[in-house]
Fold each of these.
Amino acid sequence: RQFDLVVRGGTLATAAEVFEADIGVRDGRIAAIGLDLPAGTEEVSAKGMIVTPGGLDPHCHIEELSADGGVHEESFASGSAAALAGGTTAFICFLPQWKGHSLAASAPGYERRALQSRADYSFHQIITDPTPEVLEREVPALAARGVQSLKVFLTYDPLRLTDAEFLRVLATAKRLGLMVTVHCENFDAIGWRIEALLAAGQTDPIAHAWARPPVVEREATYRAIALAELVEQPIQVFHVSCEAAAAEIARAQARGVKVWGETCPQYLTLSHADLLKPDFEGAKFVCSPALREAGENERVWKRIQDGTLGVVSSDHCGFSFATAKRAPGAGGYGQGGATARADGTPAFNAIPNGVPGIETRLPVLFSEGVSKGRIDLPTFVRLSSANAASLFGLGGRKGTLAPGADADLVLWDPDAERTIHNGALHHAIDYTPWEGFAVKGWPSITIRRGEVAVRDGEVLAAPGSGRFLARG
Ligand code: DUC
Ligand code: ZN
Ligand code: ZN
Ligand code: ZN
């Protein structure tokens, strides 16, 4: 039988090599890779294009329902449209747990909302309250349904675990063979800094970074690794922002500890200068870990180049600027009492933490990485999909160009020069931290399981066409 689709004449990039070939697709999967494949029912020309596996964003917050009633503005329909337009065909977001609730009683209806996704999706289960009921009954049941990874926070009032609780989660993951992902910052250190800054009258967005300097991240990274080492449980350290934390990961890797590191485009391109923007605009750049001083971006790139950090996720967590201005503490991603200032804007500690970036993740990484010569194409593929696929149980299906894999393909125009503007993005958020950012290289066609999902910025995939990815 002939191919449903042939992507013809492109330069293919995988995690290992770059070569010229056509890709033949049948029933949503790659059926053949080779030169001069016979005609398909549909033909897409990839002449002059670089063809990579679809991006896998293993860390994004979509429509997350928080215990305080705050709802993420990003819906599954909008967030997944943005993902596809930015070359990401699958993502892993989070099943919330509300402290004091079982998993089943947290965020009711969340999985039903996810059915609206246009991209393929999976979940990490957040654990905020590791009771025996949760660890002994609910987590094993979830794992059996293909939710094979847990997420824990070492900071944030409503989310954080004590070391004792973290150890119990690690032990459960070990027993069930699950991966554990960790947000590493020292909660008490941050609280102590926030109090001192507020007492000194420092309330501007930049004080967010002063409240959580690199040492706060480095300490928690070291502690998470040490506790994981004790239990002999692999972990993935989320959103590494600085050399100090990356160095702890590198040291542990060198002694054979199973620890992996992730970073995000914000830690490769943005800095304190952004938090200092006037008219409260700095609030657009409040994320945790915080943006660092000028110069730190290059040190994080070095840790990509030496292999310490193997995944670049978005940590997409969008709160509109309009929301941040008037809704202190929205979504639970803040710390300490919510203080309003004379003009009604919140003090730095009550600005909801997070930046939107699910659509810009890969264009920024391609441009700053591949186009500027910091990384080669196979490294780009490893960072954008392949490494996360192996780490989270999607190897062979996602992140690879090989017969049998899902036909998730991105056709990159390596010469396209664009300036990022929020008006052209597909997310539901009213700003992008990369407004006015110039990039070279753009995903002109995104194919998800053999269907053209985006062509020249137009999203063709319908809500509900994404599939839940059970992982094994
Ligand atoms: N950091 C953020 O900036 N937002 C969401 C959660 C997180 O850890
Ligand atoms: Zn986090
Ligand atoms: Zn996050
Ligand atoms: Zn603009």
Note: The radius of gyration is 21 Å.
Amino acid sequence: AADMGDDLERVLLTEEQLASRLDEIAAQIDADYAGKDVLLVGVLKGAVMVMADLARRLHSPVQMDWMAVSSYGSGTKSSGVVRILKDLDADLHGRHVLIVEDIIDSGLTLSWLVANLRSRGPESVEIATMLRKPEAAKVDVEVRYVGFEIPNEFVVGYGLDYAERYRNLPFVGTLAPHVYSS
Ligand code: PRP
Ligand code: MN
Ligand code: MG
């Protein structure tokens, strides 16, 4: 559709809700990592929005690096297969790593990623995610910072896509059924 608004069913989290929750999480991260040198690892492509909005709220001088992994392809179901499309540039040895994600759905992506990054000799590895779907969890992932727990519905916006679209919506919403069936 020419107008993304026609494809939406309802707004789950507004731009304002996302922003004020990020204020709180950023303050926690600043306190928890006071005096430490933090490497934020953003998981492309979904984490682009939360990485940009979280990083600019932190007062500590963090570094940012990116990894591209994919588990979904272009559909709506997790395949459980994680592929590295782009690896980190940074050496993780002795670093405090904070993985930044848009959503934890089955948990398969992050459980794989945490194990992968832990094997590279970091001082610590923690996770910050904007969204988590507890009902969809297939594996248990220990997450330090969670923005919002949401119901097990397919959501888009604020980085999250359906077939690579809707990532640029500034809020999180659900798609109208006609989008899937067309
Ligand atoms: C989505 C999302 C998370 C992951 C969560 O990424 O951004 O990274 O799936 O799913 P899981 O907990 O079931 O593993 P996706 O693989 O769609 O790639 P993208 O970020 O490029 O959209
Ligand atoms: Mn992703
Ligand atoms: Mg995706």
Note: The radius of gyration is 16 Å.
